[in-house]
Amino acid sequence: MHIIAGSLKGKKLATPPGPSTRPTAIRVRQALFDMLLHAPWGGNMVLSQAFVLDIFAGTGALGLEALSRGAAYCYFFENDATALPILRSNIRHCRKEAQSTIIPTSALTPPMAKQACSLAFFDPPYNRELIAQSLQALTTQGWILPNSLIVTETSRQEILPFPKESLLAERFHGAACLRIWRFESTWKF
């Protein structure tokens, strides 16, 4: 696994052993960033100097890809004991320690925000209904700005309880479903 584009293009990323962490496949990550950069509602301003959340970060591939493509800062939420050392190592290997903070706690019980973010990646274990719960907790603690882009990766059959009119894009890649939403503070969880 490696960074696809930007200042870190080609940097290899380590992955934890075993099945507890499921990194986003390279082709899925490429499709996601293509959507963010080339959709009518997207563009360079989505990433340029953005503050980003990588929730259920695992290897940190999504957040590091965003940093590589111009994001200002990324907060990585990860509490899995196997994934944490790999995440730390990947950030160090990419020399992004100054632009990163690892928050080693569950996104279901986050601390108060250090900085509200405009782009959030949610890639939890599939079919556990963790996205809505963690989004609500993060919103309550001030991590997500109104009108932010919320990127979700779920299984194909997983349904999210967000308003359909907020859905900007949906793409299927094998067993995965990528959705990009425009977050509104009026969402009911």
Automatic annotation (TrEMBL):
A Pfam family it matches: Cons_hypoth95
Swiss-Prot/TrEMBL keywords: Methyltransferase, Transferase
Repeat as UniProt keyword: no
SUPFAM superfamilies, per the entry: S-adenosyl-L-methionine-dependent methyltransferases
Keyword Flavoprotein on entry: no
Stretches assigned to coiled coil: none
Region (Disordered): 1-21
UniProt-listed Enzyme Commission number(s): 2.1.1.171
InterPro entries: RNA_MeTrfase_RsmD, SAM-dependent_MTases_sf
GO MF annotation terms: 16S rRNA (guanine(966)-N(2))-methyltransferase activity
NCBIfam families (UniProt xref): 16S rRNA (guanine(966)-N(2))-methyltransferase RsmD (TIGR00095)
PANTHER family named among the record's database cross-references: METHYLTRANSFERASE
Protein known as: Ribosomal RNA small subunit methyltransferase D
